[in-house]
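Hello again,

I reread your note about wanting to compare the complex against the isolated chains. To keep things tidy I'm splitting this into two emails, and this first one only covers the full assembly. Below are the input lines as submitted, including protein chains and any nucleic acid or small-molecule components. They are followed by the predicted structure of everything together. The single-chain runs will come separately.
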Amino acid sequence: MTLPQVNFLAILPQIIVTATALLVLIVDAVDRRGAFSRRALSWLSLIGLLAAGAAVVWLVMQGGRQSFQDMAVSDGYSLAFSAIILLAAAMGVLLAKDTVDQFTRMPGAYYALLLLAVVGMMTMASATDLIVVFLSLEILSLALYVLVGFNLREPRSAEGSLKYFLLGAFASGFFLYGAALLYGASGSTNLAQIGQAMGAGGNEIYLYAGTALLVVGFGFKVAMVPFHMWTPDAYQGAPTPVTGFMSVATKTAVFAAFMRVFMQALPATQETWGWALAILAALTMTLGNLAALRQTSLKRMLAYSSIAHAGYALVGLVPGSAAGAVAVLFYMLSYALMNLGAFAVLVALERRGENDILRGDMHGLSDRRPGLAAAMAIFMFALAGIPPFVGFFAKFFIFSAAAEAGWIGLVVIGVINSVISAFYYLSVVVAMYFRSEKEAAPAAPVKARKSKDKAAPAPATPSAPVPQAPALATSQNAIRLAVVLAAIGTVAVGLYPAPWTAYITQAVQSVFGG
Amino acid sequence: MDQVPTTYYLILSAIIFTIGAVGVLVRRNMLVIFMCVEMMLNAVNLTLIALALQFGQLTGQIFAFMVMAVAAAEVAIGLAIVIAVVRHRDTTNVDDINLLRG
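Full-complex prediction:
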């Protein structure tokens, strides 16, 4: 009897990140006093993520397609998504490095859960079997449910976690039933084999019911309207570094699996699900943007904006073409840069013990912290889709892919939505640059700022929960680094999109052809 | 020996799944909602095993095992989250958990 040949290289990045997560837990457990681990854990996580990134680059240079028992593959497509996920995770670690003590006494568990979520996400991007898609979906979801509720002192954190968990588990049930029905229709859980069986004509009732249930399951995870109810609550309740990480990385991973399942297993029914997704995309963009208009909390505004962005990305999936997949991949890259940048600015501005930023807090930011205000302006312009920042090209590729396939009406709705979204993004810029601090909204709590002393880096907060606490996190170097990296990325990829799109196009075509 | 036709199993599991899904939507106690979710997962398990029997394959049964493992992990996480919420609000009614809205 011979042992089966197992190609562990195909899942090398996942193995590295898993090992790092376990190492973080061990270091945290061994070093009881915590003097060493407080600093070391974030560095350890960053090193692990960098090593996984190096493994991804190495696998890219190897080229070709390495398969792990036909369950997961490492090809250009999965590696590109993995790179985006690792980028988001590294930003998540950087954002938490100086602030993790503010929301938890268990930094080891925080980093370990974040890394395990990354493992689930990367596996999801490389899954080629419905069983693996389901398992990786659960790995990332279970880690995120806990991360959202990580701030034990904050009732909102627990509430967001509960809502996310109940609706997420509900959605998993739908996803699973969809997977089971596809298995019933085709007799296989392998995506390529399902695609072949469907091409030959399978049982139609199972096929359509299964497809619809999969749309519900994936739709919940990417916050697609009408399955978006959990999003604003979970995003607002979660500690801000977690919100930034999950808003980007979860979407990236789920879109990777969403596209692979629908384009590889279900191309036979593309016309039907194309229409369904087009309607959902239009609803998602419109509702997300309209709801974002009337938010005063910036975290909640960005939550609704992330719903709207899920709608834009969904437009790229509608035609089911390779060009659409390229556009979605580029969209995820640009969304990672600009959205994590925006959340990094929020983390930098948050006062100790608070978990949110109101629009009134942004008043006069250009005087108090000009660098941060300039970065935030870049991210807001990019999210609104204004050239030359990266968000413009992302939207441009998405809409041109949809227009090529003849979805003109959908593109018109998308462009109208971009205009609506510019209104609330730019209102943040207006607040930062054209409003003085004194005009801060009276409803904003913990304000009572009267000093005109603009030289002070941050005004004192007399009515803050802990009276003598410093207004800002003690050290902000890691957060500054995250803001600067995201800003450079947003501008650089916006100015020179060509090398990125060339690589992404090649990666997608190696998997989907065309 | 006459076997029960696979269709019967599938109809039964569809009914159980629907009961679970409706339960999630109409019940207000978070533990009951949670149990309804588990019922949905077990309905899927029944589907998977019936289909595996129909196809004469192991894939569906392996899938069902994976679902059970995931369901167990979900229970552990879910009950921990419920406890975290109850510590703040001392209620298991989801309508009372309403700090976040808008």
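For quick reference: Residues 8-441+472-512 of chain A form one domain.

B.
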